[in-house]
Amino acid sequence: MSLETTYPTRWRRPPRMLRDRRWRFVVQGAVLAYLVLAMGSLDIEWSRVVEGLARGQRFVEGFLQPDFTSRWSDIRQGLIESLTMTLTATVVGVLISVPIGIGGARNLVPAPVYGICRTIIAVSRSLQEIIIAIFLVAMFGFGPLAGFVTLSFASIGFIAKLLADDIEEIDPRQVEAIRATGAGWWQVLHYAIQPQVMPRLIGLSLYRLDINFRESAVIGIVGAGGIGATLNTAIDRYEYDSAGAILLIVIVIVMLAEYGSSYLRRFLQ
């Protein structure tokens, strides 16, 4: 008996959910009618669109002629806050995410521990960073503390979820081999699981570092510190050349982080 996998040589249409053509026309018409009604409910004022295009043109002109000097002290302070929040929040988020991710792996822990850790992950992932930042700004006031807590909380759900999924998908043969030697739970975790998930964890941490820096520019708009507050102030004052300079700095830093993380991931793998 041959064990070779055979693949189809011709494409076949997947089965249709609605075999009756009349029902397909009804569903398509309903979707089209919904889209038309949804577009009509937007209440678009074309005069405002024209005014917005004019403001957008001024912003593009300022972006093409960035001003790094007139507000450099504010830009530097906001940039330092963003980098500080990004680095510290990522480190704290990773340190908290590792035990939660381990507890969220079904193949490692009992069901009660699994349920608690998965609940923590679900709560962290259910709220967008900007919503968390609004609540924390109301609690702690304006400043980078609210941004640091926001990014740390968001990092927990992101890293712990993916780490738990990776642990559940590891090669079980290596775990069985370590357990066959009489190793305990901590030894299995150290010698069988860590080597398989560590490169992935480092890659996720670097990716989250990139995300946290970009999110620091967003949550700063609601008062959580960072370069986003400086950007919001520049836009409110119609200083589009300074806003363009801030955006260029953000783009350059994100590109450097992307290239650096890609090189580091290739080196570790």
Automatic annotation (TrEMBL):
PROSITE patterns: ABC_TM1
InterPro entries linked to this entry: MetI-like, MetI-like_sf, PhnE/PtxC
Gene3D superfamilies membership: MetI-like (1.10.3720.10)
Keywords: Cell membrane, Membrane, Transmembrane, Transmembrane helix, Transport
Predominant cellular place of this UniProt entry's protein: membrane
TM spans (from-to): 23-42, 87-109, 130-159, 243-264
Residue stretches making up the ABC transmembrane type-1 domain: 79-259
SUPFAM superfamilies: MetI-like
Pfam families named among the record's database cross-references: BPD_transp_1
GO cellular component: plasma membrane
Coiled coil start-end: none
Topological relation to the membrane, as annotated: Multi-pass membrane protein
UniProt-recorded Gene Ontology molecular function terms: ABC-type phosphonate transporter activity
Places the protein is found: Cell membrane
Similarity remark: Belongs to the binding-protein-dependent transport system permease family.
The protein's name: Phosphonate ABC transporter, permease protein PhnE
Protein species of origin: Chromohalobacter moromii
Name of the gene: phnE
